[in-house]
Amino acid sequence: MTRQYHWQARENTKGVYYNYVVVYDEEQLGVSHAKFLEAINAEGIPVQSFYFPIQRQATFQTGDAYGRGCPFACPFYLPSTGQPPEYNEADCPVAVQYCDRRILDFKIHPPSTIEHMTDIATAFDKVTSDIHQLR
Q1: Residue 40 and residue 104 in one domain
Q2: Domain assignment of residue 77, given as a range
Q3: In a 3-state reduction of DSSP, which class is residue 103?
Q4: What is the model's pLDDT at position 8?
Q5: pTM higher than 0.85, yes or no?
Q6: How far is C-alpha 124 from the chain's CA centre?
Q7: Which end of the chain, N or C, is more open, meaning fewer C-beta atoms within 10 Å of its C-beta?
Q8: SS3 string of 35-101?
């Protein structure tokens, strides 16, 4: 099932478009996320995996946000086990899957032009039209 999302700016505001995030389906296209990214990049369109699960942030990996282990090792924060919490990949499998294999992040912020948007669409169309070559 394909989901359609429609976003609309709030009244009396103007949207600031800086990313265009596409949900990628490896199973449907039969090509890995990494290979698809490589193909789009080869067309001259810089696409990255910009988003990553929060547990990969340095603060969570080191367990230190404010120095001296705070808040993770502070006595008011420790769970009943007395040990600081761990933030593992397995704790957020959906976030890991989406960040690593399901989203493509196209940067479309100023000074991007209509020509730049056209280049992105053309590259995306070319790669998806010739997807059998990537399989």
Answers
A1: yes
A2: 54-91
A3: strand
A4: 72
A5: no
A6: 17
A7: N
A8: HHHHHHHHCCCCEECCCCCHHHCHHHHHCCCCCCCCCCCCCCCCCCCCCCCCCCHHHCHHHHHHHHH
What is the CATH number for 13?
3.90.1150.10
- Per-residue tokens: 100: 């690593």
Same domain for 47 and 96: yes
Sequence length of the chain is 135
In a domain, 11, yes or no: yes
CB neighbour list of residue 8: distance below 8 Å, 6 or more residues apart: none
Three-point CA angle 131, 127, 125, nearest 5°: 115
Task: Tell whether 73 and 133 lie within a shared domain.
Answer: no
Q: For 10-57, write each residue's pLDDT tens digit.
A: 889 877 777 888 889 999 999 999 999 999 999 999 887 778 888 888
Two tokens, residue 92: 């957020």
Q: What is the pLDDT of residues 100-115, one digit of tens each?
A: 889 888 888 777 888 9
Task: Count up the domains in the chain and report the number.
Answer: 2
Which one, of 32, 39, 43, 22, lies nearest residue 122 by Cα? 43
Residue 1, in any domain of the structure:
no
CA-based nearest residue to 103, from 92, 94, 114: 94
